[in-house]
TrEMBL record:
<keyword id="KW-0813">Transport</keyword>
<feature type="transmembrane region" description="Helical">
    <location>
        <begin position="30"/>
        <end position="51"/>
    </location>
</feature>
<feature type="transmembrane region" description="Helical">
    <location>
        <begin position="151"/>
        <end position="176"/>
    </location>
</feature>
<dbReference type="InterPro" id="IPR036259">
    <property type="entry name" value="MFS_trans_sf"/>
</dbReference>
<feature type="transmembrane region" description="Helical">
    <location>
        <begin position="210"/>
        <end position="230"/>
    </location>
</feature>
<dbReference type="GO" id="GO:0005886">
    <property type="term" value="C:plasma membrane"/>
</dbReference>
<dbReference type="InterPro" id="IPR020846">
    <property type="entry name" value="MFS_dom"/>
</dbReference>
<feature type="transmembrane region" description="Helical">
    <location>
        <begin position="273"/>
        <end position="291"/>
    </location>
</feature>
<feature type="transmembrane region" description="Helical">
    <location>
        <begin position="236"/>
        <end position="253"/>
    </location>
</feature>
<protein>
    <submittedName>
        <fullName>MFS transporter</fullName>
    </submittedName>
</protein>
<feature type="transmembrane region" description="Helical">
    <location>
        <begin position="182"/>
        <end position="198"/>
    </location>
</feature>
<feature type="transmembrane region" description="Helical">
    <location>
        <begin position="63"/>
        <end position="82"/>
    </location>
</feature>
<feature type="transmembrane region" description="Helical">
    <location>
        <begin position="440"/>
        <end position="461"/>
    </location>
</feature>
<keyword id="KW-1133">Transmembrane helix</keyword>
<keyword id="KW-0812">Transmembrane</keyword>
<dbReference type="InterPro" id="IPR011701">
    <property type="entry name" value="MFS"/>
</dbReference>
<feature type="transmembrane region" description="Helical">
    <location>
        <begin position="303"/>
        <end position="327"/>
    </location>
</feature>
Length: 473
């Protein structure tokens, strides 16, 4: 028996009465966690819109994008880190630490708003602090709720994410008129939820297992290097990334008690879910920029009109997120993934063929495409609890978050490469003329092909996903 397996046998799972208490406390605490996560996510959307205003007002126009990119890099790392730590550290302690970091960053940024670098540090604290609530929310759903409850709350979590995106996109036309420093104070509202967190959030730490500081640190460095590479591409970063991957692989295979065991990494069910997650979310980040291109280069409409249409798209995504738990409980995870991939394919291929038939019709196609992506979230994340033992759910969620963000970043890089390639617009299909129309239509064909690939992967790995049962079933 390996050291990891020995430690796992020492983990004291809760009794039936303790499990019921944890379930009730979790349900009470989830609304507060979801609200804090919403406040943090709104900040990300807001500063993605006003970062140039921040740079211009502080005489740092050339470096303005750092206000958005550096916190984004931190977000990519902490998503993985927090999920993993939830297997070892009390959810209550983690959440309180995150709220304090969120409030500290808000006050630091507001009172230090005259200094560009203080604002960036403040945004990093806000981003890192706000994500704790999101990670704890997901892990608590996996560990302590029943199947039907878990599906409902996963859907609501996804709905809140897209709702914040809708608000951010809608605010695009008016937010420039607001003094940006006051945006930094919005997360201070989190202070009102501290009593609820103290009262209701379970205070349960991992038992019989140690925190693998070395392994988690190396893996966090890998996650950070991936995020840095897609924000600031450089060939030498790939070499450093490869080195750390080799170090981590050797550590897992030879280490005494790594936080990711061999059995975790060879879990066919879990790895099948990660593969499906990678493909489903590959072009998630490309949804907004491609419609900006359509509006500007094909239909020559204003950014405010494009923002209005995208707001409609994100409202649809929010509504789909709200009902995805009900759909999941009604038809099951595999049929729902099939439906998700089909909707994505219809939206992408429909946009490719109808590129010249009106922007509002393309908005309908965008709604169908985003509905497919949104619908895939609940069955994919629900599968983590079905393919992993309860004591590893946090690690499963953390690596899942990392996979989703990495996939979308790679997809965005592929999108940018194809859209900047002159030959990509030289020939159109279905009667589409060469030029901007052909360029965008061909991009949609690629996105449609990725959707078909997602459908094929579900068909190939569905047994690895569906044959596993969660602890609550």
């Amino acid at each position: 028996m390996t050291a990891q397996e020995t430690a796992a046998t020492n983990v004291q799972l809760p009794t039936q009465d303790e499990a019921e208490i944890n379930r009730r406390k979790t349900k009470k605490s989830l609304p507060a966690l979801l609200t804090i996560f919403l406040l943090g996510t709104l900040m990300i959307q807001a500063f993605n819109l006003v970062f140039q205003n921040v740079g211009d007002s502080l005489g740092m126009s050339a470096n303005a994008a750092l206000v958005s990119t550096l916190p984004g890099i931190v977000l990519g790392v902490v998503c993985m880190l927090y999920g993993t730590l939830c297997d070892f550290i009390s959810p209550k302690k983690m959440t309180l630490l995150g709220v304090f970091a969120l409030i500290f960053g808000s006050l630091l940024g507001f009172f230090g708003s005259s200094n560009f670098w203080i604002v960036i540090v403040a945004r990093i604290f806000q981003t890192a602090g706000g994500q704790v609530a999101g990670s704890v929310f997901l892990v608590m759903c996996m560990k302590y709720l029943t199947d039907k409850e878990r599906a409902f709350y996963l859907g609501m979590f996804n709905a809140v994410y897209y709702a914040s995106s809708a608000v951010g996109v809608f605010a695009g036309g008016i937010i420039a008129s607001i003094d940006w420093k006051y945006l930094l104070l919005v997360p201070v509202l989190s202070v009102f939820f501290i009593p609820l967190i103290i009262k209701d959030t379970p205070d349960i730490s991992g038992k019989g297992d140690h925190i693998d500081i070395f392994g988690i640190t190396v893996f966090a460095v890998i996650a950070g290097l991936v995020a840095v590479y897609f924000s600031f591409p450089a060939t030498w970063l790939l070499g450093v990334l490869a080195l750390f991957i080799v170090i981590f692989a050797l550590y897992v295979w030879k280490g005494k008690n790594p936080f990711l065991s061999k059995s975790f990494l060879t879990n066919k069910g879990y790895m099948s879910v990660l593969l499906a997650l990678f493909v489903f979310y590959f072009f998630n980040f490309a949804c907004v920029p491609i419609y900006n291109v359509i509006g500007e280069q094909i239909y020559h409409i204003s950014l405010s009109q494009v923002s209005l249409c995208l707001t409609v798209v994100y409202i649809v995504a929010t509504l789909v997120g709200c009902v995805s738990g009900v759909i999941h409980n009604a038809i099951g995870r595999i049929p729902m993934l099939v439906l998700s991939a089909v909707l994505m394919a219809i939206g992408a291929f429909g946009s490719a063929v109808l590129i010249n038939n009106g922007f509002w019709l393309l908005t309908v196609m965008a709604c169908i495409f985003i509905a497919g992506i949104t619908m895939s979230y609940t069955p994919l994340y629900d599968s983590f609890s079905a393919t992993l033992p309860q004591e590893e759910n946090g690690r499963g969620v953390g690596i899942g978050d990392l996979m989703m963000n990495t996939s979308a970043s790679i997809g965005m890089a592929v999108y940018s490469l194809l859209m900047s390639n002159g030959s990509f617009s030289s020939k159109g299909f279905f009667g589409i003329q060469p030029g901007s129309e052909a360029q965008v239509s061909n991009m949609f064909l690629v996105m449609g092909a990725a959707s078909v690939l997602a459908l094929a992967i579900v068909g190939i790995v569905h047994k690895n996903i569906s044959k596993h049962k969660s602890d609550n079933e």
